[in-house]
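Try this one yourself first.
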């Protein structure tokens, strides 16, 4: 499980591109600060120096995660990228698997090289026919968690790519394998009330935090609106206590 979640489930992950955006996200109520370059792909990696600056800006006030880029499932390439990113001081390193190759060899190598020193989270692509059977391999490799995201950000929100039934099945399998489970992929504010009853551990946002799209800059008002919507959905999802006569 990712530590430092301040408000319970689902946690609010905000993807940022620099230390200034990290400060805005923190002030607006994000629980997890995610380092990512949206101009470099679905899981574009930021320069290591930029990630270090973000870690310094957050200064332990929230968990910090970082992506390693849109890489092929090559054990050596992925392991080297994960080790380098872990050395920036982030709490979580996110590794995307895009469905072109069997990821199991890379998953095993990553677990052997990195899981003892940093938390690893796999990212599967909902629009690339994700294979949920690899969650067993993630557990065996001591990954901390797994997320569903989308590779093609023009394809619409995660909720339009996969039906809620399949999203719920993903979360169920992740929980059965003791994996932290998150949902992301062009999520909008309106998706929060739909996804919260599925009880994901985390919901991730970028485009919803920017008035000019995911490659624009994070706006404080947008972050606050998502935080408010998440709080409202979480409280609405809590069943009232049964009164006793």
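Now uncover the answer:
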């Amino acid at each position: 499980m990712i530590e430092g979640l301040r408000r319970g489930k689902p946690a609010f992950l905000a993807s940022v591109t620099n230390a200034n955006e990290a400060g805005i996200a923190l002030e607006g109520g994000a629980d997890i600060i995610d380092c990512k370059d949206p101009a470099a792909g679905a899981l574009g990696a930021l320069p290591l120096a930029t990630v270090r600056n973000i870690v310094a800006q957050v200064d332990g006030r929230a968990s910090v995660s970082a992506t390693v880029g849109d890489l092929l499932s090559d054990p050596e390439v992925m392991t080297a990228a994960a080790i380098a990113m872990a050395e920036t001081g982030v709490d979580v390193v996110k590794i995307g698997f895009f469905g072109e190759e069997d990821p199991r060899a890379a998953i095993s190598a990553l677990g052997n090289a990195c899981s003892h020193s940093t938390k690893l989270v796999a990212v599967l692509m909902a629009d690339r026919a994700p294979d949920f059977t690899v969650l067993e391999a993630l557990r065996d490799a001591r990954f901390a968690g797994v997320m569903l995201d989308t590779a093609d950000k023009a394809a619409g929100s995660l909720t339009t790519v996969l039906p809620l039934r399949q999203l719920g099945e993903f979360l169920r399998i992740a929980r059965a394998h003791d994996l932290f489970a998150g949902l992301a992929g062009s999520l909008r504010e309106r998706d929060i009330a739909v996804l919260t009853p599925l009880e994901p551990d985390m919901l991730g946002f970028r485009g919803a935090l920017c008035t000019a799209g995911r490659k624009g800059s994070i706006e404080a008002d947008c972050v606050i609106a998502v935080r408010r919507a998440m709080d409202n959905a979480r409280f609405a999802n809590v069943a009232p206590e049964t009164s006793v006569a």
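Discussion: The chain is about 35% helix and 15% strand. Residues 133 and 196 are 24 Å apart (CA to CA).
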